[in-house]
Amino acid sequence: MASACPPAASTQPALPSGPAVFKTIPYAFILPEILCGTWVWILVAATSVSFPLLQGWVMYVSLTSCLISLLLLLSYLFGFHKNSENWKVLDSLYHGATAILYMSAAVLQANATIRSEFGPNSPLYYQLNSAASFFAFITTFLYILHAFSIYYQ
């Protein structure tokens, strides 16, 4: 009688749950994404949205991304993923799409910064817009890092 072989162990690492989320790349990027994105929203809102067409999109992208990323972080913390591989695909698609949207928002915010340099409330709005542009590009970089580092686990 032949003995049955045990099933092969999965070569895929388990998705983190609980506090391990903050120690595991790329999931450790979620909290900095939320914090930097929140700074973008706060800094743009502090300029009284001087250029509504440009900065309205920036605020929409930053606020929506912060909320969805917060929900994603909470789902990882509470283990809603149940170690399903579909969560990796969802995570990668979300962060890739958000990186593209954030890049467009960062470029529009940079344009608003340039336009505010000689505006009526210069230098205050220029400084706020410059800081918002900086955080928008940092946030874009974090989303790109997150999206691509899933493939290198």
Automatic annotation (TrEMBL):
<dbReference type="GO" id="GO:0019911">
    <property type="term" value="F:structural constituent of myelin sheath"/>
</dbReference>
<feature type="transmembrane region" description="Helical">
    <location>
        <begin position="27"/>
        <end position="51"/>
    </location>
</feature>
<keyword id="KW-1133">Transmembrane helix</keyword>
<feature type="transmembrane region" description="Helical">
    <location>
        <begin position="132"/>
        <end position="152"/>
    </location>
</feature>
<feature type="transmembrane region" description="Helical">
    <location>
        <begin position="57"/>
        <end position="80"/>
    </location>
</feature>
<keyword id="KW-0812">Transmembrane</keyword>
<protein>
    <submittedName>
        <fullName>MALL protein</fullName>
    </submittedName>
</protein>
<dbReference type="GO" id="GO:0016020">
    <property type="term" value="C:membrane"/>
</dbReference>
<keyword id="KW-0472">Membrane</keyword>
<feature type="transmembrane region" description="Helical">
    <location>
        <begin position="92"/>
        <end position="112"/>
    </location>
</feature>
<dbReference type="InterPro" id="IPR050578">
    <property type="entry name" value="MARVEL-CKLF_proteins"/>
</dbReference>
<dbReference type="Pfam" id="PF01284">
    <property type="entry name" value="MARVEL"/>
</dbReference>
<feature type="domain" description="MARVEL">
    <location>
        <begin position="21"/>
        <end position="153"/>
    </location>
</feature>
<dbReference type="InterPro" id="IPR008253">
    <property type="entry name" value="Marvel"/>
</dbReference>
<dbReference type="InterPro" id="IPR013295">
    <property type="entry name" value="MAL"/>
</dbReference>
<dbReference type="GO" id="GO:0042552">
    <property type="term" value="P:myelination"/>
</dbReference>
